[in-house]
Amino acid sequence: MKLTPLFVGAMTLALIGSASAQTLTIATVNNGDMIRMQGLSSAFTEETGIELNWVVLEENTLRQNVTTDIATNGGQYDIMTIGTYEAPIWAKQGWLKPLDGLAADAEYDVDDLLPAIRGGLSVDGKLYAAPFYGESSFIMYRTDLMEKAGLTMPEAPTWEFIGEAARAMTDRANDINGICLRGKAGWGENMAFLTAMSNSFGARWFDENWKPQFDSEQWKNTLDTYLSLMADAGPAGASSNGFNENLTLFQQGKCGMWIDATVAASFVTNPNDSTVADKVGFAQAPDNGLGKRGNWLWAWSLAIPASSQNAEAAEQFINWATSKDYLATVAEKEGWANVPPGTRTSLYENPDYQAAAPFAAMTLASINSADPNNPTVDPVPYVGVQFVAIPEFAGIGTNVGQLFSAALAGQMSAADALAQAQDATTRDMTRAGYIK
Amino acid sequence: MARRVSTSTKVGFTVLAWAVALLIFSPILWTVLTAFKTEAEAIAAQPTFFPQNFTLENFGAVQDRSDYFKHAINSIIVSFGSTILGLIIAIPAAWSMAFAPSKRTKDILMWMLSTKMMPAVGVLIPIYLIFRDLRLLDTVHGLTLIMTLINLPIIVWMLYTYFKEIPVDILEAARMDGAELWNEIVHVLVPMAVPGIASTLLLNVILAWNEAFWTITLTSGRAGTLTAFISSFSSPQGLFLAKLSAASLLAIAPILLLGWFSQKQLVRGLTFGAVK
Amino acid sequence: MQKTECHALALRQAQDEVYWNFLRREERMATKQTRALARTMMAPAVVVLFIWMIVPLVMTLWFSFQNYSLINPMMTGFAGWANYVYVIGDPSFTQSLINTLLLVGGVLVITIVGGTFLALLLDQPIWGQGILRILVISPFFVMPPVAALIWKNGFMHPGYGMLGHLWKFFGLQPVDWFNQYPLFSVIVIVAWQWLPFATLILLTALQSLSEEQREAAEMDGANAVNRFRYIILPHMARAITIVILIQTIFLLGIFAEIRVTTGGGPGYASTNIAFLVFRTGILSNDIGAGSAGGVVAVIIANIVAIFLMRAVGKNLDA
């Protein structure tokens, strides 16, 4: 009982504390570039006197927290880190404040943002989220292992070549897997990869009448190719591997190839973290000669919820964090190779960056080749390369991701996974009113 | 069981008991060791048992990213605050259930326990909306309140079973002496019940400390507890096992120490006083 | 002969207990005045808990009959039973029901059998009893997400987990636990967390068995198995009941461990009802369906509780 006064005292302190000077609460993902931003942000506080309150969470937890908050108008955050999936959907619902201040700021130079990325974050020409880093996907491969296998990676390989190379590079006795691909269930995990891959096989999520297409030949080919590739040349336990796990495997020298986000290029070539830093080559995501490659488009971006009481200061921070100056600051402290990529044209025209980042040209080419409005061979009613930009997709995509992950784990056959995916998606789309 | 045993039997049991105990403790031991390794060593193909290059850099890296002490203080306030608040509400209730039981006492007890049956994920939105309207989001007192409600049934249960053990004769004697009801509680009941109350406090502090759903969803920058602290180190990019171990060690250290130092009390507490 | 004697001893003891409790509580029945006071003192706890139960429950019931999606403002209006039909029609519903029961049952069996074994072991005269006890109860102090992360990354990871190294050391292929045995892996983690709880309760029950009772049994020449069966086990019945009741309440809602390790998969292999509610309600932002799922979960929990009370509740009356 003696603790009671202490407790009451602490509560009072907490109450007083919450009413102090201007403070921004920023929710962000625990990715390397964001952690670096957090580290550098003391400079912003010194400059402006605005205090920053960081909430750095693992991606899934972050998504859940910010979605709950913005949808209930909770007002816990002043700045949220969101992706190209959320930005247009939330903006259309009036949940985000348009970043007009950035567009008007000549120094910020909004026209310098890569058109593909900027387009994905705008609604009716208005920017609602500023890209912090952007990415497509491409192939990262081990030049030494490729050579050892007696093969040469073309700039733009086919799936057939990838299959051949992956099997040739696999050396399980020495713990080397020909290819590492995402297998962990989630719309932003295995489904991002598989949806992008399926585009290059000519598959699509829905036909023009929103009818799910998992019963199509194209999806069967996609999944069969993926499963046999992973069975022959993938790492053990692949169905638990997402981006982070595969990154670790690749850095440890356990993958011959890895098809994933372009942003990983600076991590795998960083000698501090990667044991294979000087043996990595890059190539465009594979295709099947159908005119579409299996690469996606994504940008982690900063946005201000409409409920924020500190919108002006928040925009000031976003301006700082996504500016050209910020890139220069990172370059000065960590080297050009480590600046957040994929947002500004000027970065890719910068000779220092081109020299420091051997992956720069390939990254830009990949970003520019992804077309969210025409993601696959046949026409589709939706926007989005590796996702379908409808509010229900997060749930549906994760559901299907679970089934495909089970197929990869050997818990069900590819045919069963596709059939169940078709049923589950039809059920959810009917419920959401897309299918009459 | 038998107290007169040969030395060889004692050796045998000792060896077996230590083997089993170390097996149970090994995940924690492994985490402690990993926390002092470098990231590369932590996931090396050739595992090492003791850190080869003993390092504290993981703790530094963790503290740089996330203010450990702020989260720890929040955890302490929320877990102790909610438990004390819960005790204040529960002591009178448990007293009356134990000393003036009615036919419905058992039903009420079961009903109280049943309030814990609604899965937290099922009521997230209602609670979130209430918290938003009462301006309790991301506040330490809001979190304290909800933790009080969550653990109240357990607190009542524990106290009830303790109080039932207190012989009624003593209370009767006090009453004969003309003690007022309040005096009866303060001077007779409380001193006798202190061990039970102490272990109730301990157990519920641990339960509140370990709660990891509401503490993460209802907080953002200010009121986050150590469970939110951990969430920031769960599967980030790049190598993370050593940093995660360091963060985990930091997050469980205070409660582990508290538990270790008070384990005798806890043994009593965990029995719910049910077993004499 | 021995059997009957042991049995009689246990029975007599139980009867004594009942008799004394009866004397204590019923004969000295409280006066009317104290009763009124008692109700007043109970009121805060009951009222607070009632509000805590009823407000979210009513809101959840209300939402469960509404079309309510967090991210789709077009979904509005009365839904009738559609949300319930949707949740119960979920392809994983039956499996999550089975998984929930397997999870609860599996953890209960492991913790009670393991806890009894540990309690018996720690009750022996051994060196370092204090330290041993501390080692054995420490998992209880580890918060669920940390426990899950420790097991997932430090222990069960096929690449760099401790178990993987161990398997390799013996020349075996490391097991990919979360994909090959997802539900079993979750059960192991949860059982590890709850084993100390069971052990401690059972240990204290064991230690409260009076020296005279043990010695009497020993003098009768009862062997270890019979002593365990006819003296120790009946004595621990109430402790076991409490372990079952309290753990079941917590185990029905296991969620953090699943989310951190398997995400309910692969497929639906480790999805339980709580996780299903999470997936429909929060992951898909479908509050209507999520609320219906919550209501269904409460109903299932109550059925389990009633069943349990029938099965073991009588042990509580002492």
Describe this structure in words.
The complex is a heterotrimer of chains A (436), B (276) and C (318). Chain A is of the alpha/beta class. Chain A has two domains: 17-134 and 298-356, Periplasmic binding protein-like II (D-Maltodextrin-Binding Protein, domain 2, 3-Layer(aba) Sandwich); 137-296 and 365-431, 3-Layer(aba) Sandwich (D-Maltodextrin-Binding Protein, domain 2). Chain A contains 20 helices and eleven strands. Chain A has helices at 3-17, 32-40, 42-48, 59-71, 86-92, 100-104, 115-120, 143-148, 159-169, 190-200, 217-233, 243-251, 265-268, 311-321, 324-334, 345-349, 351-356, 360-369, 393-408, 414-431, and strands at 23-29, 51-57, 79-82, 122-123, 126-127, 130-135, 137-142, 177-180, 255-261, 280-284, 298-303. Chain A has a five-stranded mixed sheet with strand order 2-1-3-11-6. In chain A, strand 4 (122-123) and strand 5 form a beta hairpin. The N and C termini of chain A lie far apart (63 Å). In chain A, 58% of the residues are buried. Chain B has two domains: 7-56, no CATH class; 60-270, Orthogonal Bundle (MetI-like fold), CATH 1.10.3720. In chain B, helix 8 (168-176) runs antiparallel to helix 9 (181-210). The model of chain B is unreliable at 271-276 (pLDDT under 50). With 318 residues, chain C is mainly alpha-helical. Chain C has a single domain (2-316), classed as MetI-like fold (Orthogonal Bundle). Helices cover 74% and strands 0% of the residues of chain C. Chain C has 14 helices and no strands. In chain C, helix 2 packs across helix 14 and helix 11 runs antiparallel to helix 14 (287-312). Chain C is flat. Chains in contact: A-B, A-C, B-C. Chain A binds chain B through residues 1, 3-4, 7, 10-11, 14-15, 17-18, 23, 25-27, 30-32, 35, 38-39, 53-58, 61, 64-65, 68-69, 72-77, 175, 242-245, 247-248, 251-252, 267, 273, and chain B through 43, 45, 64-66, 73, 77, 80-81, 84, 124-125, 128-129, 131-132, 137-141, 144, 216-217, 220-224, 228, 231-240.
